[in-house]
Amino acid sequence: MTPYSLAFYLDVVTTGTVLGVSHADFPEQVAKVLGPDCAEGTFSDHDMYLGYGFVEFFWNRASAEHSWSGHHFTLQVHRLAHRKRVDVHDVLRARYGRFTYRLRFEKLQRLLTRRGVPLVEIPEIPTTGPYFRTFWQPDSHVAVTVIGTHGEYETPDDLRVGDVYSVHGPVAAEEVAWRRAQQV
After folding, report:
1. Smallest Cα–Cα separation from 10: which of 88, 81, 114?
2. What is the Cα 150 distance to its own chain's centre?
3. 104, 134, 100: which is closest to 119 by C-alpha?
4. CB-based contacts of 19, cutoff 8 Å, min separation 6
5. What's the pTM value of the predicted model, to 2 decimals?
6. DSSP codes joined into one string, 108-174
7. I need a surface site. Which of 16, 40, 91, 137 has the fewest CB within 10 A?
8. Cα–Cα distance measured from residue 92 to residue 84, given in angstroms and rounded to the nearest whole number
9. What is the b/e burial string over 27-45, where b = at least 16 CB atoms within 10 angstroms of the residue's CB?
C-alpha cells in the first residue's frame, strides 16, 4: 500500500481521473462523486469551475443555451504548502488519509515507474521556462509540473526545486507535438 496522498497522485496520473471522474464529465457527475460542498465560479456565461480544495474542474460552452463541456482538471499541489486544512477536501481525506504539504517529484516518478507508468519530459511553454519543468503521461494525458529552478516572483518561496507544482489533464498529444516543434 502506498502511504497517504501518494496513492491519490498515482491514481490520478495513471487513470487521468479524480476518484473516477474525468475532465469530460458534466458538473453534476463531478458533484455526485466529490460532493456538493465546493467553490463554484463562472468567468462568463461560457466558462465555469468547481473547486474542491486544491482540486479544480473546468468547463466551457458556446452559449448559455448549450450544455457544459469538460475542459480540464487541475490539482493545485502548491497550495498544500500553505498547510490549510480546507485545501484537502473531506472526500479526498476520507479516501486517502493525510496529505503531505509538499510532493517530491522524484518519489512520484519512482513509484509510477515501478507500476509501468512512464513520464516523459516535454518542453515548457516559453513564458514558464526555466522555472518549471513538465512531465507527461502519454496514456492518461496527464501532466505533472515541477519546480525546475527558483525564481524570485516566479516560483513559490515555500516550495523547493523538485517539488510538484501542479498536476493537470488532459494534455493532448497534439499539444505535446506543438511544444516539441517550438523547440526546433
Report:
1. 114
2. 20
3. 134
4. 33, 34, 91, 92, 95
5. 0.93
6. HHHHHHHTT---EEEPPPTTTTTTEEEEEETTTTEEEEEE-S--TTTS-TTS-TTBEEEEEE---HH
7. 40
8. 14
9. beebbeebeeebeeeeeee
pLDDT in tens, 116-142: 999 999 998 877 768 999 999 999 999
Q: Quick check: helix, strand or coil at residue 7?
A: helix
Residue of 163, 137, 38 lying closest to 92 (CA atoms): 38
Distance CA 83, CA 70 (A): 29
32 and 134 Cβ atoms separated by less than 8 Å: no
Helix (H/G/I), strand (E/B), else coil: 103: coil
C-alpha cell at 71: 475542459
Which three cell numbers mark 20?
A: 473516477
Query: 10 Å Cβ neighbour count for 169?
Result: 24
> What is the pLDDT confidence band of residue 1, given thresholds at 50, 70 and 90?
very low
